[in-house]
Design goal:
The structure holds two protein chains of two kinds.
Chain A lengths: L4 H9 L1 H5 L3 H15 L4 E3 L3 E3 L10 E6 L3 E8 L6 E6 L8 E6 L5 E9 L4 E8 L9
Parallel strand pairs in A: 1-8
Antiparallel strand pairs in A: 2-3, 3-6, 4-5, 4-7, 7-8
Chain B lengths: L3 H28 L5 H5 L7 E6 L32 H8 L6 H6 L4 H8 L5 H14 L4 E4 L8 H5 L3 H10 L3 E2 L9 H10 L3 E2 L5 E2 L4 E2 L6 E6 L2 E8 L4 H4 L8 E2 L4 H13 L4 E6 L3 H10 L5 E4 L10 E3 L2 E5 L6 E10 L2 E11 L9 H11 L3 H4 L2 E5 L12 H13 L4 E4 L13 E3 H8 L7 E6 H16 L13 E3 L1 E6 L8 E6 L11 E6 L12 H12 L1 E2 L7 E4 L2
Parallel strand pairs in B: 1-2, 2-3, 3-4, 8-10, 10-11, 11-13, 16-24, 17-23, 21-25
Antiparallel strand pairs in B: 1-14, 5-6, 5-9, 7-8, 12-13, 14-15, 16-18, 17-20, 19-23, 21-22
Helix pairs in contact in B: 8-13, 15-18, 16-18
Classes of the chains: A alpha+beta, B alpha/beta.
């Protein structure tokens, strides 16, 4: 069998990409946060971000956010070439302020969720999601 | 007034005293050739509930030798904490005398010499005797199997796990959780699970498409024992599709799912559970972290990382019990549960010394019946070894070196990669190597030995990635195996560094040259999680190699320099 580097990477060796992350991506995430908050200070608490510690498949990673009382929640994959994953807006009749989706991750990175609350304040949660080749457990 | 925490500590201390005197006695008794079944099973029945824990049997029906690790590095908060203590330090911690039975059972030095005195360990017919004895004292004891049961031997491979199902059913477990079982493929797992006469548990087994709990596995089961309502929650290995081929069970997703575990614990408490037991295949450090985050678990029966501990580890008000692997140990945990709370415990890690514990004849016969159709093929002698062949340890064991040598020579490669799994019994100096022994070290459903080209850069990336799966300071990012074994290469590893900076000085052992990042090398390996991997089965590669060399001469591997341990 002839395994090319690309084939091997396709297995999840995508972790390599993590070490080559363009600075541009991180800057893009900062820009997106600034645009969302208008530069306002960001607190913590009152928002829950649920994502796996290690992605089973970096191409489709489940992520959930929950921020009671939020009017809008933005989810960013900070080190993706295009960091924006989704922005969820909740109207006054929304039964709950939570949402789930799936995202593609270019490599191991921090996933960030920022909620805009009804009073105009912002809160943030983040979680490191590892994208790995996989070892061979016991 | 004594609060619950004081009770646990009081009981913990009492248990430690029992344990310590037990070790002291055993070394004396062994010296006098008086190690007996009665002493191994001696236990003052306590409280009103008994749990029996077996885990990571890896299809070892018969007695075997199993060398514990000499190197098992802990990182972050777990540096220097059990189970990351080995050898003389481990014996000192638990008051185990040098040369005693527990020295042989729990540490690795003088393994070959002590093996002459104490003999083989395990055998499910001996395990059955121990279980029967506990049930004689406490007829309604719960028997809980932590998984990695239907994997790891010639007969298990050829019967797709049926041999283990048949024998375990005879032991009458009450519940089980899973890991390598899924490498039989999800259809086969479901077929077996539907017929199981006990509960198949996994609160973290999810439907991959809907990201909801899978319907084929229950998250928990209630039992009433000794008048106590007990909830046993299952936790399957969290990183199954990453450490093993996800394409074999594509409809399932796993993960640690701490929030889910808290919800399930709250749910069973809400339904009146007075005792909550987590039957876990998380691995020890992950269980420790989870026990600190999830409130309301009384006992964690911990599997996956193959650690055997003579005393439970206490995290908050939760006790964590680690029961070893390969049928070498059975843990008995007696609990005093009153007024809906665990008030105290008594624990014993029972080593299964095969020459001391009488086999249960009915189970011996059942085991032999499973093996009979394969006996001729698997008993064929391929070669012999004049040193210990073992695997356990963070870096190459002698079994791994032999497998890597086989890959280098039979597949004409520059570099060999062999997975850092923790299963695989040991062989003693002078032992013959049979086909069964080779399967014990290599058996799996994705055994193809690939041959490919990789750049030096990619090889280093793989090494860094696997190293992070072991030495990431946060246990939730660890997968619980050991470092990938390398043939033809030496390297230096600093376990304190972050991913990408741990590995250096990667050297081609044959030429002494540094690995060139831009150069392409021929690499042979096995156990790829890639679908469609081609190549001969690894056991055939190893068998061909051993036939050619006749006698294996294992030597200490000094090609890995470890820093920061």
């Amino acid at each position: 069998m002839n395994l090319t580097r690309r084939d091997a990477l396709a297995l999840g060796l995508g972790a390599t990409a993590a070490s080559l992350l363009p600075l541009r991506a991180v800057a893009a995430a900062d820009d997106a946060i600034a645009a969302f908050t208008g530069g306002a200070e960001i607190g913590s608490g009152g928002i829950t971000l649920t994502a796996p510690e290690i992605a089973e498949n970096g191409n489709t990673v489940p992520v959930s956010v929950d921020a009671p009382g939020a009017v809008s929640i933005m989810v960013l994959a900070t080190a993706n070439p295009t960091p924006g994953v989704a922005t969820f807006n909740f109207g006054p009749l929304a039964g709950s302020q939570s949402a789930s989706t799936r995202m593609r991750l270019a490599g191991t990175q921090d996933v960030v969720a920022i909620a805009k609350m009804a009073d105009g304040s912002f809160v943030k949660a983040s979680s490191t999601v590892k994208v790995t080749i996989g070892g061979c457990g016991g | 007034m004594i609060n619950r925490r004081d009770f646990l500590q009081v009981s913990m201390a009492a248990s430690a005293v029992v344990g310590a005197s037990g070790f002291g006695n055993w070394s004396r008794l062994a010296a006098q050739q008086l190690l007996t079944q009665d002493q191994l099973l001696d236990f003052d029945t306590f409280g009103n509930v008994s749990l029996i824990h077996v885990t990571d049997i890896h299809a070892q029906l018969k007695p075997i030798n199993f060398r514990e690790p000499s190197i098992n590095i802990g990182v972050g908060d777990n540096k220097g904490q059990v189970p990351h203590i080995t050898g003389a330090d481990f014996r000192k911690l638990y008051g185990i005398d040098d040369g005693s039975a527990f020295h042989y059972a729990l540490t690795s030095d003088d393994f070959a010499a002590l093996g002459q005195t104490y003999g083989k360990v395990g055998g499910l017919d001996r395990v059955s005797t121990v279980i029967n004895s506990i049930r004689a004292a406490r007829p309604d004891a719960l028997l809980l199997d932590g998984g990695d049961t239907w994997h790891g031997s010639y007969t298990c491979y050829h019967t797709e796990g049926q041999d283990m199902v048949n024998v375990m059913n005879a032991l009458k477990p009450d519940a089980m959780t899973f890991h390598w079982e899924f490498t039989l493929g999800s259809d086969r797992v479901r077929d077996i699970v539907q017929e199981l006469p006990f509960a198949a548990l996994g609160a973290n087994i999810y439907d991959a498409e809907w990201d909801e709990p899978a319907e084929d596995f229950e998250p928990y089961k209630f039992f009433v024992r000794g008048g106590v309502k007990i909830a046993v929650i299952g936790q399957a290995f969290p990183y199954m599709p990453i450490a093993n081929p996800g394409w074999m069970f594509p409809e399932y997703s796993f993960g640690i799912r701490t929030e889910r575990m808290q919800e399930v614990v709250d749910e069973v408490r809400g339904q009146g559970a007075e005792l909550v037991v987590l039957l876990s295949h998380n691995g020890f450090d992950v269980d420790k972290k989870m026990a600190g985050l999830v409130k309301g678990i009384d006992v964690v029966l911990s599997g996956h990382t193959h650690d055997a501990l003579p005393e439970p580890v206490l995290v908050g008000e939760t006790i964590i019990v680690a029961s070893g692997s390969n049928g070498k140990f059975v843990s008995r945990v007696d609990l005093d549960v009153r007024d809906g709370r665990m008030m105290g415990f008594r624990h014993k890690l029972i080593p299964i010394f095969s020459d001391v514990i009488e086999p249960d004849k009915a189970v011996s016969d059942l085991i032999d019946a499973q093996r009979a159709p394969y006996e001729t093929a698997m008993s064929e002698v391929i070669g012999e070894t004049d040193g210990v062949l073992y695997r356990r340890g963070n870096f190459n064991g002698t079994w791994d070196d032999l497998i890597c040598d086989a890959l280098l020579s039979e597949r004409e490669a520059d570099i060999a990669l062999s997975p850092g799994v923790r299963w695989g019994p040991s062989l003693m100096p002078g032992d013959q190597i049979t086909r069964e022994d080779i399967f014990n070290a290599t058996s799996m459903t994705y055994p193809n030995a690939y041959r490919t080209e990789m750049t030096g850069e990619l090889i280093k990336t793989i090494m860094e990635d696997v190293a992070d799966n072991i030495f990431n300071p946060d246990p939730y990012y660890q997968q619980g195996g050991d470092m990938v074994r390398l043939g033809g290469l030496g390297y230096r590893i600093d376990v304190t560094k972050p991913q990408g900076a741990r590995i250096s000085d990667i050297t081609m052992l044959k030429t002494g040259e540094q690995l060139d990042p831009s150069k392409s090398y021929v690499v042979a390996g096995w156990a790829s999680v890639n679908e469609g991997t081609e190549g001969p089965e690894i056991w055939n590669v190893v068998e061909d190699h051993i036939r050619k060399i006749g006698t294996v001469h294992p030597t200490e591997n000094t090609s890995v320099k470890v820093v920061g341990a």
